[in-house]
Amino acid sequence: MKRTSNILIVAALAGGALLSACGNKGAHNRKPGKIYAPDMYESRAYEFYSGRLAGLKPVEGTVKRGAMLPYHLKAEDTAQANAVRNPLVLDEAGIKEGKRLYDIYCGVCHGQKLDGNGPLYKGGDGPYPAAPASFIAGKVLGYSEGRIFHVITHGYNVMGSYASQLDIEQRWKVVAYIKNIQGGGKAPEPAAAPAADSAATAPAAAPAVAAAQ
């Protein structure tokens, strides 16, 4: 009998605790506990390269490992841009990458065929009223690779800059693709054999020279 009474008491206490928990569920959600470590719960926002992070700013005049040299010409330096040459020597894969980037960022205006008739113009039926420049006819056909890169970097007339969408190397790849098409689509010449290869053949020729003597 005593054992039965103890079981009933424990069951009653457990049931009361359960009902209490269910009844206070909403109140518990409305009043969360105090945050023990607020800096970990809500991280502070920092302006990069300012305050305590100012010492992490790259040294002025340095270039990130693997990155190309920065482009220093201003938008008004068109004459100097005409003389700039593409620093990249691209194979067929590099030209294909230039085409991929062109199709994404340039084709919508200048057309997949580089004829200035992209979807935004669409022969005058598109949403853009003015015909974009053609790369295969007109004055742009005579632009140097440096001039095209300069326009992509700074924009020209109603065309904005694409420097934020394409990094320096990507811009040069787009230029290489455009000039490749302007040149008749000829694949780039293969890179010259490294000097080490010619040096390696020298010992083979030496015995013949010695025999001739």
From TrEMBL:
<protein>
    <submittedName>
        <fullName>Cytochrome c</fullName>
    </submittedName>
</protein>
<dbReference type="GO" id="GO:0009055">
    <property type="term" value="F:electron transfer activity"/>
</dbReference>
<dbReference type="InterPro" id="IPR009056">
    <property type="entry name" value="Cyt_c-like_dom"/>
</dbReference>
<dbReference type="InterPro" id="IPR036909">
    <property type="entry name" value="Cyt_c-like_dom_sf"/>
</dbReference>
<keyword id="KW-0408">Iron</keyword>
<keyword id="KW-0349">Heme</keyword>
<dbReference type="Pfam" id="PF13442">
    <property type="entry name" value="Cytochrome_CBB3"/>
</dbReference>
<keyword id="KW-0479">Metal-binding</keyword>
<dbReference type="GO" id="GO:0020037">
    <property type="term" value="F:heme binding"/>
</dbReference>
<dbReference type="GO" id="GO:0046872">
    <property type="term" value="F:metal ion binding"/>
</dbReference>
<feature type="domain" description="Cytochrome c">
    <location>
        <begin position="93"/>
        <end position="182"/>
    </location>
</feature>
